[in-house]
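Q: I have 456 residues here and want to know how they pack in 3D. Can you give me a structure?
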Amino acid sequence: MNIREILTSAINKYKNLADYLEIRVEKGELFSLSFQGQVLDNLTSTTNLGGCVRAMYKGGWGFVSFNSLDNLEEKVSLAIRQSKIVGKSSLKFIEPQVREAIVNVDIKNDPRQVSSKEKKNLFEHYNSLILAQSSKIQSTQVSYRDEVQRIYFINSFGSYIEQERLDVVGRFNVVARDGNNVKQAFESVTSRDSYDKVLNFDKKVLETTERALRQLDAKPVNAGTYTVVLDPKLTGVFIHEAFGHLSEGDNVYENERMREILVLGKEVAVPQLTIVDSAVIPDLPGSYVFDDEGIPAQKTVLVENGILKNRLHDRETAAKMSEAPTGNGRALTYGFSPIPRMTNTYIDNGSVGFNEMISDIKEGIYAIRMLGGQTNGELFTFSSGEAFMIRNGQIAEPVSDVTLSGNVFHTLKNIEAVGNDLAFSSGSCGKCGQNGLPVGVGGPHIRIKNILVGGR
């Protein structure tokens, strides 16, 4: 029997023994390499097949993962028995909108047709290019990965979905050092349909190296409260980390304070702000046609003109909160259950140009990219990857050690201008031990008043 026949047989035999039953199987080909400084420290090519069974009975879940389709019925039976041990309530899922779908990627230049040697030579070139720029380049981390997967999904509602996915990823981290002064810069490139995206990347690699070196000469910023302008990359990371996670259904349902704050229909931001999570934007890392529970992907407007409109759900949180699933049930691999996760999260375009945005700022900060950060509920702290002072409406000298702190809901109401230059970048997200999930982040430049900025 082929994979579909095996899965169909197992589901049909056991589907009446649980309130809900699903099987997900992933079959993939992976290639990866990485340089650490001058050393090629990894070159790997693998194929894999694995899957999982999830059963739900009276609100209780059973989960079993496997690396072989042999004895699949035993795994299904075990998941059902587990669910009956913990099930103690009632949970009803909506019927699927799509019964059957086969989704293939239109691959323009298939990385599987490019030799390992060619990939290694290309990224060795990029790595050498970085190291050749200055004796102050202390180290590099340069990596490449491509993966082609076919994901098979079937459930007891009668859905059967096959979905192909291609990910091509290049990452470049540059560490520069001058005495005890250490700075770094990061760049990445992703594609969902072609190896070509990682070609001809010399200019971006050199710009990344220049950012790291430029920061060595930057003076620490004076701590204080400033008007801050975020570039599109930092805007995207800010809205993902500070607001996007709070919008995930489990984070709302399981947190009484968030349920009190995040009431649908409530004004949570300035009227010019719209926040969106969308899995249907082509060639972004968080995009797909169906999520890992077989729900169609969609564009979900979280905040529209400052008003909270929706949140992000998998099947379970949608049912618990009597809301519709949004196609955000995602799992890192077959070793995990789907949970509510973001896809491509962004602040939508406004109407203000960058020059107009900074024109009346007497003293402020232009913060670019994110170096690191953390969130704790509605509180956030981010370190920018690079920053400049704004003086009398002009970009001035570079400054370092810029950390931005605040309360996300106060900050959303302190936004003074939203730019007209929406741009997306790639990222990866961690949650509940599922770290490295591909996501997109985006936004235009935004201007925020009264941001607490910490310096050295």
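Q: Anything worth noting?
A: The radius of gyration is 24 Å. The chain is about 20% helix and 45% strand.
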